[in-house]
Amino acid sequence: MNTRFAVATHIVTFLQTQQGRPASSELIASSVNTNPTIIRRLLSQLSKAGLTISQMGAGGGALLARPGDAITLLDVHKAVDEDLVIFPLHQEPNPKCPVGRNINAVLRGRVATVEKAMEQELFRTTIADLAADISAAGPAG
C-alpha cells in the first residue's frame, strides 16, 4: 500500500486550515514531514482533479479550489489513485484446481461489498469535517 491518499488528505486539510492564505510546498512539507518535491507532485494531481489551485508570485502558493465542505475524501482518493481496488484479485489462479478455478468468483462479491462501503464512507466525509476534528482536538501536547 502507498501513502498518496493519506498525504494528499493531509495537504488539502492543511490548506483548509490556512483559511484562504496560500501555502508554499515547503510549508506544507514541514507539516507533512516530507520533501517538498513529493508535495508538489501531489499538488499537481490535486490541481488536475480541480481540488487545488496555485497562486503565483510573491506570497503565492497552493489554495483549495473550492470550499472544504465541497471536497470529500472520495474526491481526494480519486485524484491520487486511479481506482478504489482495496483487494486486487489474483489474476492467474490454477484453473485445474477447484479452489483456483473458483476463488475469484467467490471473493469478487464480498470484496465489492467492502469496496462499496469504503467508497460511501469516503463520500460522507469532507475536508472541512477533518479540519473541524483537528481543531477540536486542540494543540498537540
**Low confidence ranges:** none
For the CA atoms, what is the radius of gyration?
19 Å
Let me know the number of strands.
Answer: 2
Fraction of residues in helices? Answer: 55-70%
- The count of helical stretches stands at 6
Mean pLDDT: 92
What is the CATH topology assignment?
Arc Repressor Mutant, subunit A
Order of helices and strands: HHHEEHHH
Major β-sheet profile: 2 strands, antiparallel
| Helix/strand class | mainly alpha
> Any idea how many domains?
1
CATH superfamily: Winged helix-like DNA-binding domain superfamily/Winged helix DNA-binding domain
- Overall body shape: elongated
Q: What is the level 1 CATH name?
A: Mainly Alpha
Strand order of the largest sheet: 1-2
Q: How much strand?
A: 5-15%
Q: In the CATH hierarchy, what is the architecture at level 2?
A: Orthogonal Bundle
Describe the structure in your own words.
There is one protein chain. Helix 1 packs across helix 6. The chain is elongated. It has a single domain, classed as Arc Repressor Mutant, subunit A, CATH 1.10.10. The longest helix is centred in the last third of the chain and has 27 residues. Strands 1-2 form a two-stranded antiparallel sheet. A hairpin with a 5-residue loop joins strand 1 and strand 2. It is built from six helices and two strands; from the N terminus they run αααββααα. It is mainly α. 57% of the residues lie in helices and 6% in strands.
